[in-house]
Amino acid sequence: MLQENATADRQPRAVRLHWYIEAAAILAFYVVYSWVRNQYGSATVAPALALHNAQRVVDIERSLGLFVEPHVQHAFLGWSWFVRMWNIYYGTLHFIVTAGVLVFLFRRRPDRYRVMRTTLGFTTALALIGFTLFPLMPPRLLNDVGTWGGGDLSFDFVDTLSRYGGLWSFDSGGMAAVSNQYAAMPSLHIGWSLWCALAIWPVVRNPWVRGLFACYPLVTLFAIVVTANHFWLDAVGGVAVLCVGYALARRCDPLLARVRNQRGQGRRSADDEDTVGATTSARTG
User: What is the spatial distance between Cα 277 and Cα 122, in angstroms, rounded to a whole number?
Assistant: First the structure.
């Protein structure tokens, strides 16, 4: 019987997750991400480079006949309250919904939490590479540069955060010091919102909740365009880094699980030895 119990104990078990370890790891990751992101941000990148990259994006969209961002924005500029609402949406939901989905998965589906947490980490890290290699001036800043290659910009974008306001402003001293205004390609707003939808879809059964999360990436796409924070091609970049991030997580998660199980088996073996030793001592005594 003792041998059977020992054999059963050696079987792989799911290693328990500890919320404080997960929270500390995620916080540390985001602090490092923010620091690196801003090291190569708008304070250190030549505006001419970010502007040149914006021209390249606009040229691609125009060649496809899909340079629609100015038309979308101007269709709603007459509704100041509406635009301000999307500024608030852009600055808050990005973090709140993502954090909520992480907590939900941690509590209800720790098995799915692991791979989706790793996916989110890879996606964010890949986006950081994109920000560094391809600094991109967002549409809302294009009209601030005067002329472009000797010609009139004639885009007529509006910096809605500056005109209509929100919960914060890039013009404030603190925000200007820590923000990277050229971190536009890929769009993490799209990458994270699509991650939320894919992470929650297999977990919930309520059709209303599923519908809300299915619409979330599309609503976020509208938000980034109407506020002129991104081109729609930035959204394509966000989808791309999410796909690659998920592929990497699917490859890495089994390796991480194997390491966790080996560590868990090592601890259980030590506990078994202590238990057997204590039992033998008790019988001898």
Answer: 45
